[in-house]
Prior knowledge:
This protein is an alpha+beta fold. Helix content is about 40%, strand content about 10%.
Amino acid sequence: MSKHIGPVCKLCRREGEKLYLKGERCFTPKCAFEKRSFAPGQHGRTGSRGGGSRTGESDYLRQLRAKQRARRVYGVLERQFRRYYEVANQKFGITGLILLQTLESRLDNVVYRLGYASSRAQARLMVTHGHFTVNNRRADVPSMLLNDGDVVAVREGSRTLEYFKGLGDLADARTSPSWLERNTKELSGKIQRLPERTEIDGSLNEQLIVEYYSR
């Protein structure tokens, strides 16, 4: 499985805003975006393609940046992201909303939303290492799509590890969306329904993403 291995702070700088890819570190003064909010590269301070001023940008550039931002927020590579779009486009309903709901229903995102990881990257790593189960079965595929009624839980054999011993208290300090039912005592969570648009990141622009792939 391919993945991004470069500095993730450069991704935030390219989009001109924090994407909170490092979890709690992004809320501290140590966040690199606080010191260098301009786009990476030799023209980052004065160019209009990354952070900072974007006056006079084309429709294509706005569509591209919207697509790239969503990809980076959820940690999905281009081929898989396009496949999600094609599947959403074939379903009955609003394509953009279905696309976002698909991204939200990924196992790594659900673990993050439940508060059992400080970032999607951390959630993806823990899932890959087999620390979670889905419906009492060990799951190690971060891109696994969950459905209504599915139950995600920390694997019994992982609960003795130091990180998971205090995970319930850490999770209680983090908010969890209403479309998920969380039980921090059991270190589990249940998918009650698909999220509504108001429960998904409001800075994502799914209409521009649809326009990008509809060209």
